[in-house]
Amino acid sequence: MATHFVIDGLKAEIEGKEILKGINLEIKGGEIHAIMGPNGTGKSTLASALMGHPKYEVTEGTASIDGEDLLEMSVDERARAGLFLAMQYPSEIPGVTNSDFLRSAINARREEGSEISLIKFIRQMEKKMKELEMNPEFAHRYLNEGFSGGEKKRNEILQMAMLEPKIVVLDEIDSGLDIDALKIVSNGVNAMRSEDRGFLIITHYQRLLNYITPDFVHVMMQGRIVKSGGPELAERLENEGYDWVKEELGIIDETVGQA
Q: pTM for the full model?
């Protein structure tokens, strides 16, 4: 059965201020959805709320993968259910190597007694790192410690490729990447596209969507998705900005205060 991800009426707040004001979105396996919008409209809040960041309180609505209620799960349970978030600013974890982190993450999603063998893990990791043009030494370095911005983003895609999630949320994965790194990261995403996996890409720029062609583009303003279309919508936003959307929908020019 193909993956099915549904967000219905999702509202969320931070410190009593409502940021998400009713998000509705459906992603099926094989689909790539892109969310674009001005700064401060709640895009990154959506990603964090879905993953269960404690700073954000969901006050209303539901989110589910294949019928399973994500909002009733802890963060690690959401990851095991198949939700993956590539963060805009990946954390550094001193003392934990890339390989140890990844192997532990893979085994956490497996039944006891069916853990991945060390040999199989090493072979898979070496293959994926080669595809992402990553130095093999990075497997033995502490997680993201001392990595450049581009190296951190490649590392996020490596994690995605190894964990094989059902729903991938990419929060401004293109931020800080040069063209060469952007192409490599995009190729990694495109290689993972399948009916068993859906993508939600949060981005400010059309340039990422030149390499990862979305099926649907959504415009987010004031904590809501206000307009949806195909790839041509992203191109128009790149060329004309967001004023025409505001004018078309009669939106007052104000933000909700979060990315």
A: 0.90
Q: What are the start-end ranges of the H helices in the chain?
A: 43-51, 75-81, 98-108, 118-131, 149-163, 179-191, 206-209, 231-240, 243-249
Contacts of 96 (CB under 8 A, 6+ apart): 142, 143
- Give the C-alpha separation, 99 to 73, whole Å: 26
List, for residues 162-192, the tens digit of each pLDDT value. Answer: 999 999 999 988 887 888 889 988 999 999 9
Per-residue pLDDT tens over the stretch 2-34: 889 999 999 999 999 999 999 999 999 999 999
For the chain, give the number of residues. Answer: 259
Map out the domains of the chain with their CATH numbers: 4-219 (3.40.50.300)
Side chain identity, residue 69: D
Q: Which of 18, 27, 22, 173 is nearest to 89 (CA)?
A: 173
How far is Cα 22 from Cα 57, in angstroms, rounded to an integer?
A: 13
Look-up of token digits 């900005």: 241
Q: Which two tokens stand for residue 185?
A: 């990261």
